[in-house]
Amino acid sequence: MPADRDLNFEELQAAQGQTAEDGEITRAAQDLEAVFDIPVSVSAVLGKSRLQVSQLLRIGKGAVIELDRKVGEAIDIYVNNRLVARGEVVVVEDRLGITMTEIIKGDRR
Fold first, then answer.
1. Which pLDDT tens digit goes with each residue over 51-70?
2. How far is Cα 87 from Cα 109, in angstroms, rounded to an integer?
3. What is the pTM of this model?
4. Flagellar motor switch protein FliN-like C-terminal domain spans which residues (predicted)?
């Protein structure tokens, strides 16, 4: 699905195997309609690294920066700078994507 295409609530329900026939789901959709157009920032963090400014200035094209994560380890997914999930990197056609494998509940960071 192209990133610039809007997803309506019925399509989201269908993707999750739910139908709009359930009265609670329909009511929940109507309750959430007011926030559908609010923009949010979504970030996927593959890993982190600490460098001194002198090391940073020596980095050039083709340089490799070691991150604090191992290959295959879950990545952190943030919404508006708040950790909300963990997931894995996937390839969708010729683009990178994220699949969520764990939803973070509460204020864990």
1. 999 999 999 999 999 999 98
2. 15
3. 0.61
4. 34-104
